[in-house]
Amino acid sequence: MDNFINNLLFTYLPHISMTLFWFGVITRIVKSPQSLQAESSQFLSKKGQRWGGNLFHYGILMVFIGHFTGLFTPENLYHMMMTTATKRALAITMGSIFGVSAFAGILILLIRRLKNKRLRLNSKPQDILLIVLLLVEIGLGIVSIFITAGSSIESYAELGIWAQKVITFQPDAGAVIAGHSLIYKLHIVIGLFIFMIFPYTKLMHMLVMPVAYFFRSGYQLVRRGFTKRST
Ligand code: HEM
């Protein structure tokens, strides 16, 4: 890849993407907090929602925990507990399990949305586009596991070195992964694109739901057994 393009995409784009992400998140929370919801489609059709939703959400949550710890833990810190080879084996195993779970889940959710007429008619084009984008991103992530498994330990370690150079504003960050596979690069660029559009999509519910859950009010939990006994 051309040096200029490589630098643009892997040294500067991460910062552009995160700036747009935080700008969008803050302005949306301040300007229109009432619009922050995932607009659940469960009331339109329950079929596939439970399986698809659970597989996707548990899978993607673990994948994100894996990305965060895997990319941002400095080498000398994780070396206190394991070698780079062990860390790679762990990433391949956990990444495969949870990556495939997220992929299967989102595929079920996409099929459900397209096959059910009521659901299809109530879906905006951007709802379907977002699911397809996530499907492609997760698919590329899974393919990248095969590349990780087949390449050298140094090449795997460089992914973490790159991410840590990015967050510490090192101007040579992009150079670290210049020679890496196109699959990784596509995965990273699409991932950064997802961060850029994140504030303007349903994905915003990820940030507000966990907080809103703990501060919710006005709900009354009625347990059937308890109600029967007390009446
Ligand atoms: C810019 C942000 C991102 C970066 C730098 C990144 C980086 C990576 C890397 C290096 C791998 C390979 C790990 C390995 O082989 O062990 C990977 C795998 C994966 N990525 Fe990403 N990724 C990003 C965003 C995303 C997003 C937004 C999603 C999903 C919506 C995603 C889903 C996956 C999945 C499912 C895998 C395979 C399972 C795993 O290894 O956890 N990634 N990613």
Automatic annotation (TrEMBL):
**Membrane protein topology class:** Multi-pass membrane protein
Give one Pfam family, short name only: Nitrate_red_gam
The transmembrane segments are 12-30, 51-69, 89-110, 130-153, 173-198
Q: Which domain of life is it from?
A: Bacteria
Question: Major location, coarse class?
Answer: membrane
- Domain named NarG-like: residues: 6-224
| Localization terms from the record | Cell membrane
Q: Does the keyword Aminoacyl-tRNA synthetase apply?
A: no
**In its UniProt entry, what is this protein called?**
nitrate reductase (quinone)
Lineage in the entry? Bacteria, Pseudomonadati, Bacteroidota, Bacteroidia, Marinilabiliales
Gene name, per UniProt, is: narI
